[in-house]
Amino acid sequence: MSDLFLQSILDLLLSAGQFFLLWSPFLLAFLLWETYLYYIRAKWLKENIAVLLEIKLPREVFKSPLAMELVITALHQASSGTLIDQYIKGRTPASFSLEITSIAGKIHFYIWTPKFFQNIVESAIYAQYPEAEVYAVEDYTKAVDFGNQGSVWELRGVEFKFTEADSYPIKTYVDYGLDKDPKEEFKIDPITSFLEFIGSIEATHQIWSQLIITPAPKSWKDSVQKELDKLLKRDKPKKEGDMSWGEFALSSGEREKVKAVEKSLAKLAFNSGLRVLYLSRDDTVRIPIFVGIMTNYKQFGAQNLNSFKPLMTAGLDYPWQDPFGFRVPRIRRKFFQNYVYRSYHYPPASKKPMVMTTEELATLFHIPGQVATTPTLERIPSKRGEPPVNLPV
User: Fold this and answer.
1) For the CA atoms of 341, 344, 345, 348, what is the dihedral angle to 10 degrees?
2) Distance (Å, whole) CA 200 – CA 287
3) pLDDT at residue 37, rounded to an integer
4) What is the DSSP letter of 364?
5) How many whole angstroms separate alpha carbon 47 and alpha carbon 61?
6) What percent of the chain has pLDDT over 70?
7) ∠ at Cα 160 (155, 161), nearest 5°?
8) Which of 38, 77, 391, 392 has minimal CB crowding within 10 Å?
9) Minimal CA–CA distance to 165: which of 351, 306, 363, 273?
10) What's the whole-model pTM score?
């Protein structure tokens, strides 16, 4: 019996060795290819000049977030160029970062864009917000030396993911009735509570939020259609003579889901990554502030559709996960570096994104109206005067 058992073990090892020898060249080729793509894409992104544009908010904004949705639609630049561009130069579809920050309580709106698309971004903003002002500014992240020797900064961070499949949208500005342009006193804008919260932090604190977007692949609509077929009970083969009742067989909650998913199909979509950092210059990080950041994103959730939950935080849950104190500093440095590089979908981050429509993105990032009364939300004091049309050239 022992000889038979030993022979079985030897046969198993021999089979495993043969399997490895057979497939190792393909595995090695795959790893080399992935390493090559990582290198050329990281090189492309590093060399691709970007600019940070700050949007100075006009004093009077009467437009709904639909105006920002049209701006975001202009950012749907899906081309990756030729095969040479993609696999020799490492070119990727253009990424943009929609950012809202609070520097010592003072709120700023930014769009980080490849330099090549700067004019497109500026034109899209002015077309929808003619009274706004857009400036290329110094990157605010350069003023923070987190991770360097002797730095006084502490950091906490969170990246979000969906609780459900990408096919289901979050609660958008349309659900809040903002698409109907109600009077200011009747508006309920979910972004205002977030602005009020980040605008109330101390002078030694900063909160940075970024929504990094790049066009979603066409295959996304196929997955949405599959989910729609599943909701409508069209994903299972029907027997001859069976009737398909479709939407008539659904409950009221299921019909709401169908309408929401169908609406998503009609929108442009982006691979999206949502990341928020909280930095403090003093020795004490206010944990309630970090908790408040995560809580503020709950208002964008719809229990019957989709909502946000933490994908990961810049820390660990239990002391024994980092007994020597090495992992947490490394995780936080990585969070900071990925934010500074505006990296999510490609190296150095290369994370799995959420897919969000232009309507969802405009809900999270738009210029609020007078309903937002946060004192530290600065607006342009007066309208910009337009030059006479008959000026001599």
Assistant:
1) 50
2) 15
3) 67
4) H
5) 37
6) 74
7) 160
8) 392
9) 306
10) 0.82
